[in-house]
UniProtKB/TrEMBL annotation:
The keyword Protease applies. It comes from the Bacteria. Keywords: Hydrolase, Protease, Serine protease. Signal peptide: none annotated. It comes from Roseibium suaedae. One of its GO terms (biological process) is proteolysis. CDD domains: S49_Sppa_N_C. InterPro entries: ClpP/crotonase-like_dom_sf (IPR029045), Peptidase_S49 (IPR002142), S49_SppA_C (IPR047272). This is Signal peptide peptidase SppA. The keyword Protease applies. Belongs to the peptidase S49 family. Pfam families: Peptidase_S49.
Length: 288
């Protein structure tokens, strides 16, 4: 519809440069609550489909700004981008703003090129699980823990029970499996330029300049400057966003409306606060 209206304008009022769709992928991945949809395949599917459907666009640009989160949602978003790029035969340019770390970097791997700000944080190719232990606390306040299960491992890593060496070993085994999947993804996408240094997969992270030296990204720069350099001074970036639902919130595919989420008696708000704290801790790890 927009292209049709543009064609009706007198030539002097038309933009003669190419239009490049831009999709912003920002936030912690998979930390969804009824009031905070988070960054997930459901929340980005529509804008990605719309961006790749622009037939005349020479490429699709993605802005990635994420400290990580769910490895499952990270890989699903990555896979959807690669599937669309293949189906629509589009080049994918990824631009990193503040950070593309852990799951954020996994998503960035979907780009045919990754371009970052020199001060951006890149990497953290690893897997982490964190929690708290409350065994001494419940004893101190006189609380008795009662758990009944069918399945002896149903309460593995229960924070209200002492740590068990076998449980920790099991968790580390799961982490190693996910880490190996992550490593394979990096090698398959970046293998021709990737540094052989063991540090690359250690979980460390670097600034944009150092990341380029390690082969984790292709160049330094910003979206607007890069697009104009490649496609001409009249190249026009066009932000593609998810449609807005009730109360002006971004809706997601198969999402729950804001009013429906509020009908849960305030549970959405409590989960929203917890999710905000968890997300804040992820950003803080990178000094942001």
């Amino acid at each position: 519809m927009i292209d049709t209206l543009r064609g009706l304008l007198p030539k002097k009022f038309r933009s003669e440069g190419p239009v490049i769709p831009v999709v912003r992928l920002q936030g912690a991945i998979g930390m969804a609550t009824p009031l905070r949809p988070g960054l997930s395949l459901a929340s980005v599917a529509q804008p990605l489909e719309k961006a790749f459907a622009m037939k005349k666009a020479p490429a699709v640009a993605l802005i990635v700004n994420s400290p990580g989160g769910s490895p499952v949602q990270s890989r699903l978003i990555y896979q959807r981008i690669r599937d669309l790029a293949k189906e629509k035969e589009k080049e994918v340019l990824v631009f990193v703003e503040d950070v593309a770390a852990s799951g954020g970097y996994m998503i960035a791997l979907a780009g045919d090129e990754i371009i970052a700000d020199p001060c951006a944080i890149i990497g953290s190719i690893g897997v982490v699980s964190a929690g708290f232990g409350f065994t001494d606390l419940i004893k101190k306040i006189g609380v008795e823990r009662r758990v009944y299960t069918a399945g002896e491992k149903k309460v593995i890593l229960d924070p209200f029970q002492p740590e068990n060496a076998d449980d920790i070993a099991y968790l580390k085994g799961l982490q190693q499996e996910i880490h190996e999947i992550f490593i394979d993804m990096v090698k398959s996408r970046r293998g021709d330029v990737l540094s052989s240094s063991d540090e690359v997969f250690s979980g460390k992270f670097w600034t944009g300049g150092s990341a380029r030296g390690l082969g984790l990204i292709d160049g330094l720069g910003d979206l607007r400057g890069t697009l104009k350099e490649r496609y001409g001074s009249k190249a026009e970036p066009k932000l593609i966003s998810a449609p807005r639902g009730l109360l002006g919130r971004r809706s997601s595919v198969g999402g729950v409306s804001a009013l429906a989420s509020l009908s849960s008696g305030g549970q959405g708000l409590g989960g929203d606060v917890i999710s905000s704290l968890e997300e804040r801790s992820l950003w803080a790890r990178y000094g942001l």
